[in-house]
Write a structure and sequence with these properties.
105 residues; mainly alpha; elongated
């Protein structure tokens, strides 16, 4: 015969969530810029590695590294870094001359 278990009461507790929830402006800024910084770094590493293997595809490899590191926000960070460095986008789509697309501010 099975042994009977004693009934135990479960106590419901309210969880205070406001203390653990991120508040204010800074967490939103961090969640926006953190993937961009990760993508810029991943893009630079990807560009470096691709440049060692196939130099003609270095910039495309940089964008691929940025995407692998942080997704679409990472690619945007890599584009912003390239524009700040003054390299332009440098994407040749086979539409004529191989001149980098530059944005002047």
């Amino acid at each position: 015969m099975k042994k009977r278990r004693a009934r135990t009461r479960t106590v419901t507790r309210t969880v205070r969530r406001s203390a653990s929830r991120a508040r204010g402006f800074m967490p939103k800024v961090q969640s926006f810029f953190k993937p961009m910084a990760a993508g810029a770094g991943g893009g630079e590493i990807g560009e470096l590695v691709t440049n060692m293997v196939a130099p003609q595809y270095a910039q495309i490899g940089g964008y691929a590294g940025a995407y692998l590191a942080a997704g679409v926000k990472g690619v945007l960070g890599k584009v912003a870094l390239d524009l700040i460095k003054g390299r332009g986008l440098g994407i040749n789509l086979g539409l004529g001359q191989n001149t980098p697309v530059e944005v002047s501010v």
